[in-house]
Amino acid sequence: MLPVPMAAAASSSPHSLATASGLLLGSMALAMLVGAFLGWLVGSAGIGLLVGAIVGIPLAIAVVYSVYSRSGS
Fold it and tell me: In terms of pTM, does the model score above 0.85?
């Protein structure tokens, strides 16, 4: 029997799916906390939380996009 040659190890990316998920969740949670705090200051933490979530979705996507676009160049 001939030995099977081992495949070359793929270069590992410093960014993984877990990193992207963490960035998405962290950015979203931060936006929601800031929104809830600002809403609490003006009298409605629930509305502030909702606004924070709405603002947090595009913010989280932009954060992940900026991190991954920097790693490509």
Answer: no
Determine the 3-state secondary structure of 46 from DSSP: helix
Q: Is 72 left (phi over 0), alpha (psi -120 to 50) or beta?
A: alpha
- CB contact at 8 A, 57 and 24: no
Rounded mean pLDDT of the chain? 85
Integer Cα distance of 55 and 65 in angstroms = 16
- CA separation for the pair 39, 69 (Å, rounded): 33
Q: How far apart are CA 56 and CA 25, in angstroms?
A: 9
